[in-house]
Amino acid sequence: MVLAKSLRNHNTSRKLVALIGPHVAEPTRQVLHKLYDEVVLVDVLDSGDTAHLALMKRPELGVTFTKLHCWTLTQYSKCVFMDADTLVLANIDELFEREELSAAPDPGWPDCFNSGVFVFRPSNDVYGKLLTHCEEKGSFDGGDQGVLNSYFSNWATEDISKHLPFIYNLSSIAIYSYLPAFKQYGRDAKVVHFLGKVKPWNYTYDAKNKSVKGQSQDPSTLHPNYLLQWWELFSTSVLPLLKEEYGSEPFHSGCETGEEAHDTASKVDAPQAPPPPQISSQERKQKWEQGQADYMGMDSFENIERKLDSFLK
Prior knowledge:
Layout: H1 2-9, E1 17-20, H2 26-35, E2 38-41, H3 50-57, H4 62-68, E3 79-82, E4 86-88, E5 102-105, E6 113-120, H5 124-137, H6 144-151, E7 170-171, H7 172-177, H8 179-185, E8 191-193, E9 204-206, E10 211-213, H9 225-246, E11 255-256, H10 281-289, H11 301-312
Parallel strand pairs: 1-2, 7-8, 9-11
Antiparallel strand pairs: 3-6, 4-8, 5-6, 9-10
Helix pairs in contact: 2-9, 3-5
């Protein structure tokens, strides 16, 4: 929602499309419809989806298959994909002058591109080839970035025009690791990318004092202005839309208004889909075998990792 508002505020002339999963609650979908020209439901567990068969062989790539659906938006000739944890700081319509696959280098390994922002041409043919690539080779990093870098393997060496300047995908990791360069070039940033486990919406914002709490947990604290920009946009332009849809139903914004920021700072609880029904171990096993693991819930990577850690300890 904040990403959409930031694009609109900087007068993009392009249509905006949101890809969402089936877990997104209906009131939240209504807000997205107000902000985006199209809201497309992506359900890789739907047996009518070609990604469903790929999941049978590579169940660990469920979230990756969701992202690859952007290539099915064939009603458009060219698109710029942007992760939900990005924020636009200036108009970026000039990215449409680039060709597939244009992206900025990743701060962790510059011969790889970061898949948080990239230019592509929707194509069912490419979509099918990407799924086949996933089935046969998987992902070297367990996610979409590994798949895409493996598929578009000539990005690093073939055409420099497909290397986006870093200002189109400025990450908090880069600010932390090369502060002098950020001081030199950071003022020209057009897109900031909140990489890492802690996202802007995991913080708490005090609207009265215009401050973000909990910044010490994340490298982006070296330049908290981006976090403040994110939260100010959320509190002024997105929160009112959420309140319209949710009404008196409680939801968690992580935001404290001036009236709420008292000694026992009241906070509202998060918009969440209802908890999934409990299933037996046998049912869960069958779902795994059918490629229908609950990637966003009990079968998430974090839960599996936690279980493994408990055994190893």
